[in-house]
Amino acid sequence: MMTIDRLFVPAAFCGLVATMPPASATPFERLDWLDRTVDQLRGQVRGPHGLSALRLVEAINQVRHATHDEFASAA
Fold first, then answer.
1. What is the pLDDT of residue 72?
2. Which of 32, 48, 50, 53 could form a Cys-Cys staple with 44, CB 3.0–4.6 A?
């Protein structure tokens, strides 16, 4: 599994980052944003930025899994 230190977001997807919740958001709010963002990126896979979309989906999925683990440990 790769570790993400920094993430380059192509200009085509900067709108997604603009809607990212703040660090103080609840895990539910973060997970909701992550889910919606992955859905939007998957819709872009067949477009001109498909490879970038796939790479972002992979990176965001790591964060989604960590957020799910956070839910599990809180229960």
1. 80
2. 53
Question: Could you identify the residue written with the tokens 């919740």?
Answer: 21
CA distances 63 to 47, 48, 53, 70, Å, are 24, 25, 15, 10
Answer for the pair 39, 61: CB distance below 8 angstroms, yes or no: no
- pLDDT at 14 (0 to 100): 86
CB 75 within 8 A of CB 47: no
DSSP 24-69: TS-HHHHHHHHHHHHHHHHHTTTSTTHHHHHHHHHHHHHHHHHHHH
